[in-house]
Amino acid sequence: MILTKQYRCTHSSSCQCIKGHLSEDVIFLVFQQLNWNPKLIATLSCVCKWFDDIAKRVLWKEFCRTRAPKMMLDLQSSGSHSVDGNWRALGKLLIYCSGCSKGCLFNNIHIPGHFVYRTRFSRTSGKSFLLPQCRTDILYVSDPCEHLEQGEEGEDLGFFRGVFKSFSVSKVRSMLIKKEAQFHPTEVCPYCKAKLWSMEQAKMIPQSASSWLGAYEDCVEYYVCLNGHMLGICTLLPLSDSEEASELE
Questions:
Q1: What CA–CA distance (Å, rounded) separates 100 from 42?
Q2: Percentage of residues in the chain having pLDDT higher than 70
Q3: What InterPro entries does its record include (predicted)?
Q4: Which residues contact 66 (CB under 8 A, 6 or more apart)?
Q5: Is the pLDDT of residue 242 over 50?
Q6: pLDDT digits over 97-137, tens only?
Q7: How would you class 22 by CB atoms within 10 Å of its CB: exposed for 0-12, middle for 13-18, buried for 19 or more?
Q8: pLDDT value at residue 151
Q9: Distance in angstroms (rounded) separating the CA atoms of residues 59 and 126
Q10: Residue partners of 108: CB distance under 8 A and separation at least 6
Q11: Which pTM value belongs to this model?
């Protein structure tokens, strides 16, 4: 006789779901019809620990695969069946600009984090953020999320984020360790809560990063966490008259 595994909520004794749960297959089909809506996945995660486990293990994975299929296929092509920092962290990175809090990672700038409708991540662009000796690494980087006139002197700021493929065996990680780079003393990755390395402190920010971002050379800063998530900020160059005109056409 095959016994069906019984799941019980371990969140609290007052939960309404203590009498049992729908099967994972049913939940999968429901969210498939909902096109893996991230807000609904996040809501389900708050119900109890059992639902939270399904969301982490299944639903966020399918969300990532649907939102960025080619990128996800590449990130998993090294033979690993999991993504560093878990699928929920990667799902959040795809749709959430972390901003920054005053006095934390990026000096005295305070810009609340916010969700973005859609962001393009590029593997080719990621090469611009790697030193020449590290360019065999694979890094996906987003287009900068623009926050106009938000700098201390009214500058236009851009926030960008990214993720390394197989960061644990990357040349960037090896170089950070070789340089004995220090972790940030208080702040952690907003996506997976892992410790952060400052690429500026390690002197590993190439000039090509500012060129790709359209930013001032000395105004690009970014961090990489132990799981290979990247987050950064830059001060954007003003548009020329011709660029402004083309934007309006």
A1: 22
A2: 82
A3: EID1-like, F-box-like_dom_sf
A4: 35, 36
A5: no
A6: 998 877 678 877 788 889 987 789 999 999 999 999 999 99
A7: middle
A8: 67
A9: 27
A10: 102, 152
A11: 0.84
